[in-house]
Q: What sequence folds into this?
């Protein structure tokens, strides 16, 4: 998507990220302004930081940020027919020291809800189902087993918590938070369509997309646009199709490997988070790279070459 003419981006050369003004910093990403607050574009940079239990570990996972960025671009380019996205460029306008892990994106007014779609019953959804038979107000069939595929994908929104955990809410509450029920209806339809499209692709690649989270906003014209990251191992639960079995938890291509280590490390799950051992770092990095290569069908090095070559 070319939201701004390439010439305009090229006329604003930035040699390093340090030349830009930081406007937001999260557990994994930083957002930088491009030439002033009035500019319609931002630079979104994904770091190699990793967090568990809402605490960031001091040990990075090498190339994690590049995997997240490369996968987001892969999906943005393949889902633009479903909904517009905020991607402007992965090369032009990106500083040299952020190549591969940063993209130029449109400024959006983000909606105050997380848009979760579940195709399988697992995680917090499984816990809620055991307790109530429902997930985010959606009643599910009796007798489901852990990790079982649902009859159809369900939309289970949540709040966006500045601190701590997001809170699961039902559709009506999500519509109240947005203040536009018709827009929320469209968000639900688009979210499920995105999930279904990605799940079908992943299945062909030997991967199950169990669930995923989207973030939407509206642009200056009021158009619905998907932002943030999309369909990455950090925002989605990917399982290998080989070995999948209902009735138990599944191995996944995400930070669950680190979370499992952290849970058994003796850490009390309060900040500061402990350093991660080298073998856990290596195992986690391998899982992120495997996810990238399985889903895209190409070597991770090709993404590095693509973003390094266009200068």
A:
């Amino acid at each position: 998507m070319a939201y701004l003419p390439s010439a305009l981006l090229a006329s604003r050369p930035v040699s390093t990220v340090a030349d830009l003004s930081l406007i937001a910093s999260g557990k994994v990403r930083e957002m930088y302004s491009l030439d002033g607050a009035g500019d319609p574009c931002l630079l979104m940079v994904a770091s190699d930081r990793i967090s568990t239990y809402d605490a960031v570990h001091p040990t990075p996972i090498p190339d994690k940020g590049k995997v997240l960025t490369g996968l987001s671009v892969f999906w943005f380019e393949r889902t633009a027919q479903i909904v517009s996205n905020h991607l402007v460029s992965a090369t032009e306008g990106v500083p040299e020291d952020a190549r591969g892990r940063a993209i130029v994106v449109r400024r959006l007014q983000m909606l105050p809800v997380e848009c979760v779609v579940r195709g399988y019953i697992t995680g917090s959804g499984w816990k809620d189902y055991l307790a109530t038979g429902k997930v985010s107000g959606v009643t599910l069939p009796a007798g489901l087993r852990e990790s079982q595929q649902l009859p159809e994908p369900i939309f289970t929104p949540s709040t966006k918590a500045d601190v701590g955990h997001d809170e699961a809410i039902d559709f009506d509450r999500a519509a109240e938070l947005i203040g536009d029920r018709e827009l929320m209806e469209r968000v639900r339809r688009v979210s499920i369509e995105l999930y279904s499209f990605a799940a079908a692709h992943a299945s062909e690649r030997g991967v199950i997309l169990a669930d995923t989270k989207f973030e939407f906003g509206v642009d200056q014209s009021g158009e619905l646009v998907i932002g943030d990251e999309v369909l990455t191992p950090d925002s989605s639960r990917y399982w290998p199709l080989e070995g999948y079995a209902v009735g138990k938890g599944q191995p996944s291509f995400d930070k669950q490997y680190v979370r499992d280590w952290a849970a058994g490390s003796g850490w009390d799950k309060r900040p500061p988070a402990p350093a991660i051992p080298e073998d856990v770092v290596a195992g986690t990095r391998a899982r992120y790279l495997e996810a990238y290569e399985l889903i895209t069908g190409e070597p991770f090095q090709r993404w590095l070459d693509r973003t390094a070559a266009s200068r």
The chain is about 30% helix and 25% strand.
